[in-house]
Design brief:
five-stranded antiparallel sheet; HIT domain-containing protein; globular; 5 strands; HIT family, subunit A; alpha+beta
Length: 115
C-alpha cells in the first residue's frame, strides 16, 4: 500500500494546513506557495483519483462538488471571480498525484501562451 499523499496527511491532521472550506467529500486549503493573491486548493477527500480526467470518468458528481466548493470559496474571498486550474501530469505541472483544483483570484491577467 502506498503512502498517503500530503493532502490526506493535512486532512488527517498529521501535518499543518489551513483548511478554509469542507464538505463531507471535499476540502479546501490555502496553497503554501501562492501564485496569486488568492490561491486555494480544492481536494476530494479520496485518493482514488490521480487527476481530473480520472475523476470525471469515475465520479462526475464528486467533480461537480469540487467545482461547487471552488465557486463557494471564490464567492466568499474574491467576489465570485476566479480562475480554476487542474494540472494533469508531471509535464503539465502536477506535483501531487491526488486530484485537486487550483482556485486563483485577484489581479490576474489573461496572457497568451507562447511556444
Amino acid at each position: 500500500m502506498s503512502e498517503p499523499t500530503v493532502f490526506t496527511r493535512i486532512l488527517n491532521g498529521e501535518i499543518p494546513g489551513d483548511i478554509v472550506a469542507e464538505t463531507e467529500r471535499v476540502f479546501a486549503i490555502t496553497d503554501i506557495a501562492p501564485q496569486a493573491p488568492l490561491h486555494v486548493l480544492v481536494i476530494p477527500k479520496t485518493e482514488q483519483y490521480k487527476n481530473v480526467t480520472e475523476l470525471a470518468a469515475g465520479d462526475p458528481s464528486l467533480l461537480a462538488e469540487v467545482i461547487d466548493v471552488a465557486k463557494s470559496v471564490a464567492a466568499g474571498k474574491a467576489d465570485g471571480e476566479f480562475r480554476l486550474i487542474f494540472n494533469t501530469g508531471a509535464g503539465a505541472g502536477q506535483t501531487v498525484f491526488h486530484v485537486h483544483a487550483h482556485v486563483l483570484a485577484g489581479d490576474l491577467e489573461e496572457r497568451a501562451l507562447v511556444g
